[in-house]
Task: structure prediction
Amino acid sequence: MAYFGKTQALQSAATGTGAGTAVDVSGAARIGVQITGITTATVTFQGTIDGTNWVTVGLPAAATGTIASAPTADGIWFGPIAGLRQFRANITAYTTGTITVTAFVTDAAG
Result:
């Protein structure tokens, strides 16, 4: 299954907690995630294999390479997700902001 260039909104102008939309990453190698609009909030990256049980996933920040699983600021994260079935950005804490999270899924290894 070719995933090159697959982009999907995981959260769209969200103003509260919630799991948002999951993206199918079956067969994909990597994911890029961009978060905008955080004022005071936490977005937790999560993945699942069985489609039911979600676990926290760490991704390296594009700016620093530091792995984060629950960012509290805007930015871009990009890393491997091979072996997962779905990925989501769950807003697990929220005080203020209008949060948008966009994922770019690719089958490219690099």
The beta strands are 6-14, 23-24, 30-48, 55-56, 59-60, 67-68, 75-80, 86-106. The two ends are 17 Å apart (CA to CA).
